[in-house]
Protein backbone atom coordinates (compact mmCIF):
# COMPACT_ATOMS: atom_id res chain seq x y z
CA UNK A 1 0.00 0.00 0.00
CA UNK A 2 1.21 3.48 -0.81
CA UNK A 3 2.68 4.93 2.42
CA UNK A 4 0.45 7.99 2.74
CA UNK A 5 -2.68 5.86 2.51
CA UNK A 6 -1.74 4.38 5.90
CA UNK A 7 -2.70 7.74 7.44
CA UNK A 8 -6.35 7.15 6.72
CA UNK A 9 -8.66 8.26 9.55
CA UNK A 10 -5.73 9.49 11.67
CA UNK A 11 -6.88 12.97 12.72
CA UNK A 12 -4.06 13.78 15.15
CA UNK A 13 -4.01 16.63 17.58
CA UNK A 14 -1.92 17.45 20.63
CA UNK A 15 -3.07 19.62 23.47
CA UNK A 16 -1.67 22.85 22.01
CA UNK A 17 -3.13 22.17 18.57
CA UNK A 18 -6.59 21.62 20.02
CA UNK A 19 -6.45 25.11 21.40
CA UNK A 20 -4.73 26.84 18.51
CA UNK A 21 -5.09 24.94 15.26
CA UNK A 22 -6.55 21.45 14.71
CA UNK A 23 -4.32 19.34 12.49
CA UNK A 24 -5.73 16.66 10.19
CA UNK A 25 -4.13 14.05 7.97
CA UNK A 26 -5.70 13.15 4.64
CA UNK A 27 -4.62 11.57 1.38
CA UNK A 28 -5.93 14.46 -0.72
CA UNK A 29 -7.08 18.00 0.02
CA UNK A 30 -9.49 19.60 -2.44
CA UNK A 31 -9.71 23.39 -2.42
CA UNK A 32 -13.14 24.48 -3.66
CA UNK A 33 -16.55 22.80 -3.45
CA UNK A 34 -17.69 23.48 -6.99
CA UNK A 35 -18.53 20.82 -9.54
CA UNK A 36 -14.84 20.12 -10.30
CA UNK A 37 -13.70 19.76 -6.71
CA UNK A 38 -16.66 17.70 -5.57
CA UNK A 39 -16.44 15.41 -8.61
CA UNK A 40 -12.75 14.79 -7.96
CA UNK A 41 -13.38 14.21 -4.25
CA UNK A 42 -16.21 11.77 -4.98
CA UNK A 43 -14.12 9.77 -7.46
CA UNK A 44 -11.19 9.64 -5.05
CA UNK A 45 -13.35 8.59 -2.12
CA UNK A 46 -14.86 5.78 -4.18
CA UNK A 47 -11.29 4.66 -4.99
CA UNK A 48 -10.47 4.40 -1.29
CA UNK A 49 -8.72 7.70 -0.65
CA UNK A 50 -9.35 9.84 2.40
CA UNK A 51 -10.35 13.28 1.13
CA UNK A 52 -11.29 16.62 2.63
CA UNK A 53 -12.87 19.50 0.68
CA UNK A 54 -12.20 23.03 1.93
CA UNK A 55 -14.60 25.69 0.65
CA UNK A 56 -14.29 29.43 1.32
CA UNK A 57 -17.99 30.14 0.87
CA UNK A 58 -20.76 29.21 3.26
CA UNK A 59 -22.31 27.04 0.54
CA UNK A 60 -21.25 24.49 -2.05
CA UNK A 61 -21.58 24.96 -5.80
CA UNK A 62 -19.09 27.62 -6.83
CA UNK A 63 -20.55 29.26 -9.94
CA UNK A 64 -23.71 27.18 -9.56
CA UNK A 65 -26.21 28.78 -7.23
CA UNK A 66 -29.98 28.46 -6.97
CA UNK A 67 -31.69 30.91 -4.62
CA UNK A 68 -35.09 32.31 -3.78
CA UNK A 69 -35.51 36.04 -4.43
CA UNK A 70 -38.75 37.65 -3.20
CA UNK A 71 -40.40 34.24 -3.29
CA UNK A 72 -39.18 33.43 -6.81
CA UNK A 73 -36.64 30.67 -7.52
CA UNK A 74 -33.78 31.81 -9.72
CA UNK A 75 -30.73 30.00 -11.03
CA UNK A 76 -28.27 32.75 -10.32
CA UNK A 77 -25.34 30.90 -11.89
CA UNK A 78 -25.05 28.22 -14.57
CA UNK A 79 -28.20 26.39 -15.56
CA UNK A 80 -28.37 24.83 -19.04
CA UNK A 81 -27.67 21.32 -20.33
CA UNK A 82 -26.91 20.64 -24.00
CA UNK A 83 -27.01 17.24 -25.79
CA UNK A 84 -23.23 17.04 -26.22
CA UNK A 85 -22.57 17.44 -22.49
CA UNK A 86 -22.41 13.73 -21.87
CA UNK A 87 -20.37 13.93 -18.65
CA UNK A 88 -23.01 16.20 -17.10
CA UNK A 89 -25.87 14.08 -18.43
CA UNK A 90 -24.26 10.96 -16.97
CA UNK A 91 -23.89 12.71 -13.61
CA UNK A 92 -27.51 13.86 -13.65
CA UNK A 93 -28.65 10.29 -14.26
CA UNK A 94 -26.40 8.94 -11.52
CA UNK A 95 -27.74 11.49 -9.05
CA UNK A 96 -31.36 10.90 -10.11
CA UNK A 97 -31.95 14.47 -11.29
CA UNK A 98 -34.66 15.17 -13.88
CA UNK A 99 -34.46 17.70 -16.71
CA UNK A 100 -37.00 19.63 -18.78
CA UNK A 101 -36.77 21.47 -22.08
CA UNK A 102 -36.45 25.21 -22.34
CA UNK A 103 -39.60 26.72 -23.83
CA UNK A 104 -38.97 27.49 -27.51
CA UNK A 105 -42.32 27.44 -29.32
CA UNK A 106 -43.02 30.46 -31.52
CA UNK A 107 -40.91 33.13 -33.17
CA UNK A 108 -37.65 34.71 -32.04
CA UNK A 109 -36.89 38.44 -32.07
CA UNK A 110 -33.88 40.21 -33.58
CA UNK A 111 -33.10 43.92 -33.43
CA UNK A 112 -30.76 45.20 -36.12
CA UNK A 113 -28.76 48.42 -36.37
CA UNK A 114 -31.89 50.41 -37.17
CA UNK A 115 -33.46 49.55 -33.79
CA UNK A 116 -36.52 47.81 -35.26
CA UNK A 117 -37.63 44.49 -33.73
CA UNK A 118 -38.10 41.75 -36.34
CA UNK A 119 -39.68 38.36 -35.72
CA UNK A 120 -38.18 35.27 -37.32
CA UNK A 121 -37.66 31.53 -37.07
CA UNK A 122 -34.39 29.60 -37.37
CA UNK A 123 -30.90 30.56 -36.26
CA UNK A 124 -29.88 33.29 -38.72
CA UNK A 125 -31.02 36.84 -37.98
CA UNK A 126 -33.51 38.38 -40.46
CA UNK A 127 -31.09 40.87 -41.98
CA UNK A 128 -30.74 41.78 -45.66
CA UNK A 129 -30.06 39.01 -48.16
CA UNK A 130 -26.43 40.06 -48.48
CA UNK A 131 -25.88 40.10 -44.70
CA UNK A 132 -27.56 36.74 -44.29
CA UNK A 133 -25.35 35.28 -47.00
CA UNK A 134 -22.29 36.76 -45.29
CA UNK A 135 -23.36 35.31 -41.95
CA UNK A 136 -23.71 31.87 -43.48
CA UNK A 137 -20.30 32.18 -45.16
CA UNK A 138 -18.55 33.24 -41.97
CA UNK A 139 -20.19 30.44 -39.98
CA UNK A 140 -19.06 27.92 -42.60
CA UNK A 141 -15.52 29.30 -42.51
CA UNK A 142 -15.40 29.14 -38.71
CA UNK A 143 -16.81 25.61 -38.70
CA UNK A 144 -13.97 24.53 -41.00
CA UNK A 145 -11.36 26.09 -38.70
CA UNK A 146 -13.01 24.63 -35.60
CA UNK A 147 -12.97 21.15 -37.16
CA UNK A 148 -9.18 21.48 -37.39
CA UNK A 149 -8.87 22.53 -33.73
CA UNK A 150 -8.37 20.02 -30.93
CA UNK A 151 -10.07 21.49 -27.84
CA UNK A 152 -7.63 19.55 -25.67
CA UNK A 153 -4.62 21.09 -27.42
CA UNK A 154 -5.55 24.11 -29.59
CA UNK A 155 -1.92 25.24 -29.39
CA UNK A 156 -1.06 22.29 -31.67
CA UNK A 157 -3.08 23.70 -34.58
CA UNK A 158 -0.65 24.15 -37.51
CA UNK A 159 -1.46 27.87 -37.58
CA UNK A 160 -1.80 28.28 -33.81
CA UNK A 161 0.87 30.96 -33.44
CA UNK A 162 -0.67 33.01 -36.24
CA UNK A 163 -4.21 32.59 -34.92
CA UNK A 164 -3.16 33.49 -31.38
CA UNK A 165 -1.58 36.80 -32.47
CA UNK A 166 -4.69 38.25 -34.10
CA UNK A 167 -7.77 39.33 -32.19
CA UNK A 168 -11.09 37.75 -33.07
CA UNK A 169 -12.46 41.12 -34.16
CA UNK A 170 -9.45 41.92 -36.32
CA UNK A 171 -9.77 38.54 -38.00
CA UNK A 172 -13.50 39.09 -38.64
CA UNK A 173 -12.84 42.53 -40.12
CA UNK A 174 -10.21 41.00 -42.41
CA UNK A 175 -12.75 38.42 -43.57
CA UNK A 176 -15.69 40.73 -44.26
CA UNK A 177 -16.71 44.35 -44.75
CA UNK A 178 -20.31 43.68 -43.68
CA UNK A 179 -20.51 45.45 -40.30
CA UNK A 180 -23.78 43.81 -39.24
CA UNK A 181 -22.49 40.32 -40.04
CA UNK A 182 -19.32 41.01 -38.07
CA UNK A 183 -21.25 42.23 -35.02
CA UNK A 184 -23.52 39.18 -35.05
CA UNK A 185 -20.71 36.65 -35.38
CA UNK A 186 -18.72 38.42 -32.65
CA UNK A 187 -21.77 38.29 -30.38
CA UNK A 188 -21.82 34.48 -30.24
CA UNK A 189 -18.26 34.27 -28.89
CA UNK A 190 -17.51 37.63 -27.27
CA UNK A 191 -20.80 38.67 -25.66
CA UNK A 192 -22.46 35.30 -25.22
CA UNK A 193 -19.52 33.13 -24.14
CA UNK A 194 -16.20 34.76 -23.20
CA UNK A 195 -17.99 37.96 -22.06
CA UNK A 196 -15.06 40.10 -23.22
CA UNK A 197 -14.76 42.52 -26.14
CA UNK A 198 -13.86 40.68 -29.36
CA UNK A 199 -10.69 42.75 -29.69
CA UNK A 200 -9.30 41.46 -26.37
CA UNK A 201 -8.89 37.75 -27.16
CA UNK A 202 -7.42 35.84 -30.07
CA UNK A 203 -8.93 33.96 -32.96
CA UNK A 204 -7.39 30.80 -31.46
CA UNK A 205 -9.22 31.41 -28.16
CA UNK A 206 -12.46 31.79 -30.14
CA UNK A 207 -11.79 28.52 -31.97
CA UNK A 208 -11.21 26.76 -28.65
CA UNK A 209 -14.52 28.10 -27.36
CA UNK A 210 -16.37 26.77 -30.40
CA UNK A 211 -14.42 23.49 -30.53
CA UNK A 212 -15.32 22.79 -26.91
CA UNK A 213 -18.99 22.83 -27.97
CA UNK A 214 -18.41 20.72 -31.09
CA UNK A 215 -18.71 23.48 -33.71
CA UNK A 216 -19.34 27.18 -34.15
CA UNK A 217 -22.78 26.26 -35.50
CA UNK A 218 -23.66 24.81 -32.09
CA UNK A 219 -23.01 28.19 -30.47
CA UNK A 220 -25.34 29.84 -32.96
CA UNK A 221 -28.09 27.28 -32.32
CA UNK A 222 -29.79 28.31 -29.07
CA UNK A 223 -32.00 25.22 -29.19
CA UNK A 224 -28.84 23.11 -28.97
CA UNK A 225 -26.59 25.00 -26.58
CA UNK A 226 -29.47 25.98 -24.24
CA UNK A 227 -31.48 22.80 -24.56
CA UNK A 228 -32.61 21.71 -21.08
CA UNK A 229 -32.62 22.68 -17.44
CA UNK A 230 -32.62 20.65 -14.24
CA UNK A 231 -35.83 20.47 -12.23
CA UNK A 232 -35.07 22.39 -9.04
CA UNK A 233 -31.88 23.95 -10.41
CA UNK A 234 -28.45 22.82 -11.58
CA UNK A 235 -26.89 23.55 -8.18
CA UNK A 236 -28.40 20.24 -7.10
CA UNK A 237 -25.43 18.53 -8.76
CA UNK A 238 -22.84 19.88 -6.28
CA UNK A 239 -25.35 19.71 -3.44
CA UNK A 240 -25.91 15.99 -3.93
CA UNK A 241 -22.24 15.29 -4.49
CA UNK A 242 -21.51 17.09 -1.21
CA UNK A 243 -24.15 15.00 0.57
CA UNK A 244 -22.25 11.89 -0.45
CA UNK A 245 -19.06 13.29 1.08
CA UNK A 246 -20.70 14.27 4.37
CA UNK A 247 -18.43 15.84 6.98
CA UNK A 248 -15.49 15.71 4.58
CA UNK A 249 -16.80 18.97 3.10
CA UNK A 250 -15.90 21.96 5.29
CA UNK A 251 -17.56 25.29 4.49
CA UNK A 252 -16.30 28.71 5.51
CA UNK A 253 -12.67 27.59 5.23
CA UNK A 254 -10.80 29.82 2.77
CA UNK A 255 -7.37 28.32 2.20
CA UNK A 256 -4.62 30.78 3.08
CA UNK A 257 -1.42 28.79 2.60
CA UNK A 258 -0.19 25.69 0.77
CA UNK A 259 3.25 24.51 1.86
CA UNK A 260 4.51 21.94 -0.62
CA UNK A 261 7.44 19.72 -1.41
CA UNK A 262 8.36 16.21 -2.49
CA UNK A 263 6.76 14.74 0.63
CA UNK A 264 3.35 16.29 0.06
CA UNK A 265 1.52 19.39 1.23
CA UNK A 266 0.30 21.18 4.31
CA UNK A 267 -2.83 23.19 3.61
CA UNK A 268 -3.86 25.86 6.12
CA UNK A 269 -7.06 27.80 6.68
CA UNK A 270 -7.80 30.19 9.53
CA UNK A 271 -9.16 27.30 11.59
CA UNK A 272 -7.19 24.17 10.71
CA UNK A 273 -4.26 22.64 8.88
CA UNK A 274 -4.32 19.47 6.80
CA UNK A 275 -1.31 17.38 5.83
CA UNK A 276 -1.78 15.35 2.64
CA UNK A 277 0.04 13.73 -0.23
CA UNK A 278 -1.84 15.77 -2.87
CA UNK A 279 -3.86 18.96 -3.17
CA UNK A 280 -6.28 19.88 -5.93
CA UNK A 281 -6.87 23.62 -6.30
CA UNK A 282 -10.32 23.55 -7.92
CA UNK A 283 -11.09 27.27 -8.19
CA UNK A 284 -11.02 29.72 -11.12
CA UNK A 285 -7.50 30.75 -12.20
CA UNK A 286 -8.04 34.34 -11.09
CA UNK A 287 -8.26 33.08 -7.49
CA UNK A 288 -5.02 31.06 -7.47
CA UNK A 289 -3.13 34.05 -6.13
CA UNK A 290 -5.45 34.33 -3.14
CA UNK A 291 -3.37 31.46 -1.73
CA UNK A 292 0.18 31.85 -0.44
CA UNK A 293 2.40 29.06 -1.81
CA UNK A 294 5.48 28.06 0.17
CA UNK A 295 7.83 27.88 -1.66
CA UNK A 296 6.41 30.16 -4.38
CA UNK A 297 5.10 28.56 -7.56
CA UNK A 298 7.56 28.30 -10.46
CA UNK A 299 8.06 31.51 -12.41
CA UNK A 300 6.28 30.35 -15.57
CA UNK A 301 3.26 29.21 -13.54
CA UNK A 302 3.12 32.65 -11.96
CA UNK A 303 3.36 34.25 -15.39
CA UNK A 304 0.61 31.99 -16.73
CA UNK A 305 -1.80 33.16 -14.06
CA UNK A 306 -1.22 36.78 -15.04
CA UNK A 307 -2.38 36.12 -18.60
CA UNK A 308 -5.75 34.54 -17.74
CA UNK A 309 -8.75 36.55 -16.62
CA UNK A 310 -12.48 36.16 -16.22
CA UNK A 311 -14.98 38.08 -18.32
CA UNK A 312 -17.81 40.24 -17.05
CA UNK A 313 -21.53 39.59 -17.42
CA UNK A 314 -24.68 40.55 -15.55
CA UNK A 315 -27.38 37.91 -15.63
CA UNK A 316 -30.76 39.61 -15.24
CA UNK A 317 -33.98 37.87 -14.21
CA UNK A 318 -37.48 39.30 -14.62
CA UNK A 319 -40.60 37.38 -13.58
CA UNK A 320 -44.18 38.21 -14.58
CA UNK A 321 -47.55 36.89 -13.48
CA UNK A 322 -47.84 35.07 -16.81
CA UNK A 323 -45.47 34.42 -19.74
CA UNK A 324 -47.21 37.12 -21.80
CA UNK A 325 -44.83 36.77 -24.77
CA UNK A 326 -46.14 33.27 -25.47
CA UNK A 327 -49.63 34.68 -26.03
CA UNK A 328 -48.07 36.94 -28.68
CA UNK A 329 -46.55 33.93 -30.45
CA UNK A 330 -43.01 34.52 -29.22
CA UNK A 331 -40.63 31.84 -28.00
CA UNK A 332 -38.86 34.24 -25.67
CA UNK A 333 -35.58 33.92 -27.61
CA UNK A 334 -34.24 37.35 -28.52
CA UNK A 335 -30.86 38.79 -29.39
CA UNK A 336 -29.11 41.82 -30.80
CA UNK A 337 -25.52 43.08 -30.77
CA UNK A 338 -27.00 46.58 -30.70
CA UNK A 339 -29.05 46.20 -27.51
CA UNK A 340 -27.95 46.57 -23.89
CA UNK A 341 -29.32 43.07 -23.26
CA UNK A 342 -27.59 41.20 -26.06
CA UNK A 343 -29.61 37.97 -25.60
CA UNK A 344 -32.66 36.87 -23.65
CA UNK A 345 -34.72 33.70 -23.25
CA UNK A 346 -37.86 32.25 -21.70
CA UNK A 347 -36.54 31.00 -18.37
CA UNK A 348 -39.80 29.98 -16.73
CA UNK A 349 -39.33 27.33 -14.07
CA UNK A 350 -40.72 23.83 -14.33
CA UNK A 351 -44.29 23.62 -13.04
CA UNK A 352 -44.76 27.38 -12.48
CA UNK A 353 -47.53 29.54 -13.93
CA UNK A 354 -45.40 32.66 -13.72
CA UNK A 355 -43.27 33.56 -16.69
CA UNK A 356 -39.61 34.43 -16.31
CA UNK A 357 -37.25 36.05 -18.77
CA UNK A 358 -33.49 35.85 -18.38
CA UNK A 359 -31.18 38.25 -20.18
CA UNK A 360 -27.47 39.05 -20.26
CA UNK A 361 -25.42 42.23 -20.34
CA UNK A 362 -21.72 41.66 -20.94
CA UNK A 363 -18.25 43.21 -21.23
CA UNK A 364 -18.20 46.96 -22.04
CA UNK A 365 -21.98 47.28 -21.81
CA UNK A 366 -21.77 45.83 -18.30
CA UNK A 367 -19.01 48.32 -17.49
CA UNK A 368 -21.34 51.17 -18.42
CA UNK A 369 -24.30 49.68 -16.57
CA UNK A 370 -22.37 49.51 -13.31
CA UNK A 371 -21.88 53.28 -13.45
CA UNK A 372 -25.64 53.66 -12.95
CA UNK A 373 -27.60 53.54 -9.72
CA UNK A 374 -29.57 50.38 -8.98
CA UNK A 375 -32.80 52.14 -9.98
CA UNK A 376 -31.41 53.44 -13.27
CA UNK A 377 -29.77 50.09 -13.98
CA UNK A 378 -33.09 48.29 -13.56
CA UNK A 379 -34.84 50.80 -15.80
CA UNK A 380 -32.22 50.46 -18.54
CA UNK A 381 -32.39 46.66 -18.51
CA UNK A 382 -36.19 46.54 -18.58
CA UNK A 383 -36.31 49.06 -21.42
CA UNK A 384 -33.99 46.81 -23.39
CA UNK A 385 -36.25 43.80 -22.68
CA UNK A 386 -39.26 45.90 -23.73
CA UNK A 387 -37.58 46.58 -27.07
CA UNK A 388 -37.81 42.85 -27.70
CA UNK A 389 -41.10 41.90 -26.01
CA UNK A 390 -43.17 45.08 -25.77
CA UNK A 391 -44.17 47.39 -22.90
CA UNK A 392 -45.41 44.53 -20.66
CA UNK A 393 -41.76 43.69 -20.03
CA UNK A 394 -41.41 46.95 -18.09
CA UNK A 395 -43.46 45.68 -15.14
CA UNK A 396 -42.07 42.47 -13.63
CA UNK A 397 -43.30 41.25 -10.26
CA UNK A 398 -39.76 40.15 -9.34
CA UNK A 399 -36.48 41.50 -10.73
CA UNK A 400 -32.93 40.43 -9.86
CA UNK A 401 -29.39 40.91 -11.18
CA UNK A 402 -26.76 38.20 -10.76
CA UNK A 403 -23.55 40.15 -10.31
CA UNK A 404 -20.76 37.56 -10.18
CA UNK A 405 -18.05 40.21 -10.35
CA UNK A 406 -19.05 41.26 -6.84
CA UNK A 407 -18.68 37.72 -5.48
CA UNK A 408 -15.53 37.61 -3.35
CA UNK A 409 -14.72 34.04 -4.34
CA UNK A 410 -15.51 34.37 -8.07
CA UNK A 411 -14.98 37.98 -9.28
CA UNK A 412 -16.32 37.53 -12.80
CA UNK A 413 -18.12 35.24 -15.25
CA UNK A 414 -18.41 32.97 -16.97
CA UNK A 415 -14.87 31.65 -17.12
CA UNK A 416 -11.23 32.55 -17.59
CA UNK A 417 -9.66 32.99 -21.01
CA UNK A 418 -6.22 34.05 -22.21
CA UNK A 419 -5.17 37.39 -23.59
CA UNK A 420 -3.60 37.67 -27.03
CA UNK A 421 -0.79 35.16 -27.40
CA UNK A 422 -1.43 33.54 -24.04
CA UNK A 423 -2.98 30.31 -25.26
CA UNK A 424 0.02 29.19 -27.31
CA UNK A 425 2.46 30.48 -24.72
CA UNK A 426 0.90 28.94 -21.61
CA UNK A 427 -2.02 26.71 -22.60
CA UNK A 428 -0.25 23.36 -22.21
CA UNK A 429 1.39 24.46 -18.96
CA UNK A 430 -1.93 25.04 -17.20
CA UNK A 431 -2.63 21.29 -17.24
CA UNK A 432 0.67 20.29 -15.64
CA UNK A 433 0.92 19.62 -11.88
CA UNK A 434 3.38 21.53 -9.72
CA UNK A 435 4.82 18.82 -7.52
CA UNK A 436 1.89 17.57 -5.39
CA UNK A 437 -0.34 20.47 -6.52
CA UNK A 438 -2.88 20.09 -9.30
CA UNK A 439 -5.03 22.89 -10.67
CA UNK A 440 -8.37 22.41 -12.37
CA UNK A 441 -11.83 23.86 -13.04
CA UNK A 442 -14.18 24.32 -15.98
CA UNK A 443 -11.83 27.13 -17.06
CA UNK A 444 -9.24 24.46 -17.96
CA UNK A 445 -11.59 22.04 -19.73
CA UNK A 446 -11.36 20.90 -23.33
CA UNK A 447 -14.84 19.58 -24.15
CA UNK A 448 -17.34 21.53 -22.08
CA UNK A 449 -14.98 24.47 -21.52
CA UNK A 450 -16.54 26.97 -19.09
CA UNK A 451 -19.57 24.70 -18.56
CA UNK A 452 -20.51 22.29 -15.76
CA UNK A 453 -19.86 19.44 -18.17
CA UNK A 454 -16.25 20.60 -18.47
CA UNK A 455 -15.96 20.98 -14.70
CA UNK A 456 -17.02 17.36 -14.24
CA UNK A 457 -14.60 16.18 -16.93
CA UNK A 458 -11.71 18.03 -15.29
CA UNK A 459 -12.64 16.67 -11.86
CA UNK A 460 -12.61 13.14 -13.21
CA UNK A 461 -9.25 13.70 -14.94
CA UNK A 462 -7.60 15.07 -11.81
CA UNK A 463 -8.88 12.17 -9.70
CA UNK A 464 -7.71 9.67 -12.30
CA UNK A 465 -4.21 11.19 -12.37
CA UNK A 466 -3.87 10.87 -8.60
CA UNK A 467 -5.23 7.32 -8.57
CA UNK A 468 -2.85 6.28 -11.34
CA UNK A 469 0.09 7.91 -9.61
CA UNK A 470 -0.74 6.09 -6.39
CA UNK A 471 -0.84 2.75 -8.20
CA UNK A 472 2.74 3.13 -9.52
CA UNK A 473 5.19 1.31 -7.19
CA UNK A 474 7.73 3.59 -5.56
CA UNK A 475 11.39 3.08 -6.44
CA UNK A 476 12.76 0.02 -4.71
CA UNK A 477 9.33 -1.36 -3.81
CA UNK A 478 8.57 -4.94 -4.71
CA UNK A 479 6.43 -5.52 -7.75
From TrEMBL:
Domain of life: Bacteria
Family matches, as Pfam families: Amino_oxidase
PANTHER family: AMINE OXIDASE, AMINE OXIDASE [FLAVIN-CONTAINING] B
Organism: Herbiconiux gentiana
Cofactors that this protein relies on: FAD
Family: Belongs to the flavin monoamine oxidase family.
Name the UniProt record assigns to this protein: FAD-dependent oxidoreductase
Record keywords: Oxidoreductase
SUPFAM superfamilies: FAD-linked reductases, C-terminal domain (SSF54373), FAD/NAD(P)-binding domain (SSF51905)
Taxonomic lineage of the native organism: Bacteria, Bacillati, Actinomycetota, Actinomycetes, Micrococcales
Domain Amine oxidase, residue spans: 36-467
Amino acid sequence: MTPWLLNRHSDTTNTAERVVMPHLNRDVVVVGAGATGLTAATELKEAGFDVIVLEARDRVGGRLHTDEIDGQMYEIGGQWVSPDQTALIDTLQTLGLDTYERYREGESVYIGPGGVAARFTGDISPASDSTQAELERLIETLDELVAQTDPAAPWEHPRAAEFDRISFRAWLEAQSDDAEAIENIALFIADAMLTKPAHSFSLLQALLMAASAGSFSHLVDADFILDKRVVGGLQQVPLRLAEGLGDDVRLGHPVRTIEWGEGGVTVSTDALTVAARHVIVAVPPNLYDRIDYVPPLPRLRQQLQQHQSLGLVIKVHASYETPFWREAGLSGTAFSPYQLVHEAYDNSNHGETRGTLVGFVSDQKADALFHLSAVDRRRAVLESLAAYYGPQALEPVVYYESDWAAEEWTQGAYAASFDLGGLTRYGALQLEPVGPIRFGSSDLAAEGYQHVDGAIRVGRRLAREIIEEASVPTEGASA
